[in-house]
């Protein structure tokens, strides 16, 4: 295990992002003092650029510290069905979360527009998801593209949990200014976000490995989830306790847990974890037949 590289990368990812988010530090500290997050997100649109901190950290590591270089680091594959899974899997999760919350009476959904729902859906799919995926690539190039391969020799599950325990608290400043869980106590926010992070990390790892170590595929999954959940299941459109009704609440986490159990129960053998990062680029160049089997 290359623990020195892991620790250095994590330190850089936190330092770059939290330095960029310096303007929200006072509001974050105020939330801790009041022991309550704001009722609406107060970070501003510029905070989304902080998502590129893990990518910046990975570039520094690849070029100057661990020196793997950049060749093949995106692990691009050409199997289109992985991208369909990446885009429409989160759509199914968000819509199921909304449906369960409304059907059980624990939440109410308001699309927030007079336009037909198909119009909103199409905008999120065609415009929102590509934009969100480009932003998510800033995270995934670091978390899954650099950190995960360093940890995969420990096994997919262990590696996924470690990544999640790093990834979820990385969002802490944003969470404290109202991201995902407005009007809630900070400890509960961190616990729910970490639980969500573990579930998502397991799914992202499985898709990353199955898709031949493709960072682009997991970036599309991350981006699609952000696009649809941020617009359809946020507090403005899905009312109710955010600890319960949202994708990051008990309903969404429960659905993710079911998918994780099914996915890992029926997963196919893949090449060894220590071989994947080195072969991902070559696999993409050789075509489709030599990629690992999908989930």
Automatic annotation (TrEMBL):
InterPro entries given in the database record: MmRce1-like, Rce1/LyrA-like_dom
Segments of this protein annotated with the region Disordered = 275-295
Q: Which GO terms describe its molecular function?
A: endopeptidase activity
Pfam families hit by this protein: Rce1-like
**TM helices/strands, residue ranges:** 6-24, 45-65, 80-105, 117-137, 189-222, 242-265
Q: Which UniProt keywords apply?
A: Membrane, Transmembrane, Transmembrane helix
Methyltransferase keyword on record = no
Q: Which residues form the CAAX prenyl protease 2/Lysostaphin resistance protein A-like domain?
A: 119-227
GO term, biological process aspect, one: CAAX-box protein maturation
Task: Specify the protein name.
Answer: CAAX prenyl protease 2/Lysostaphin resistance protein A-like domain-containing protein
Organism field: Kribbella shirazensis
């Amino acid at each position: 295990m290359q623990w020195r590289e892991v620790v250095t990368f994590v330190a850089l990812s936190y330092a770059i992002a939290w330095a960029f988010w310096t303007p929200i530090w006072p509001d974050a500290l105020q939330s801790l003092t009041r022991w309550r997050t704001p009722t609406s997100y107060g970070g501003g649109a510029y905070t989304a650029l902080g998502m590129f901190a893990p990518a910046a950290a990975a570039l520094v590591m690849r070029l100057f510290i661990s020196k793997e270089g950049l060749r093949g680091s995106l692990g691009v594959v050409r199997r289109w069905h992985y991208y369909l899974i990446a885009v429409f899997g989160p759509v199914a999760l968000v819509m199921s979360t909304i449906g369960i919350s409304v059907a059980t009476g624990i939440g109410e959904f308001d699309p927030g527009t007079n336009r037909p729902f198909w119009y909103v859906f199409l905008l999120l799919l065609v415009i929102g998801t590509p934009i969100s995926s480009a932003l998510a690539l800033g995270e995934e190039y670091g978390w899954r593209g650099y950190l995960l391969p360093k940890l995969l020799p420990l096994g997919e599950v262990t590696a996924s949990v470690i990544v999640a325990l790093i990834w979820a608290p990385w969002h802490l400043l944003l969470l404290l200014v109202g991201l995902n869980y407005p009007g809630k106590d900070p400890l509960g926010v961190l616990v729910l976000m970490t639980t969500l992070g573990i579930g998502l990390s397991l799914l992202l790892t499985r898709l990353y490995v199955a898709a031949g170590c493709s960072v682009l595929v997991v970036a599309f999954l991350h981006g699609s989830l952000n696009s649809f959940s941020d617009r359809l299941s946020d507090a403005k459109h899905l009312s109710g306790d955010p600890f319960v009704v949202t994708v990051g609440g008990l309903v969404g986490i429960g659905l993710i847990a079911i998918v994780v159990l099914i996915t890992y129960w029926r997963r196919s053998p893949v090449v060894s974890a220590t071989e994947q990062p080195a072969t991902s680029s070559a696999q993409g160049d050789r075509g489709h037949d030599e990629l690992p089997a999908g989930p």
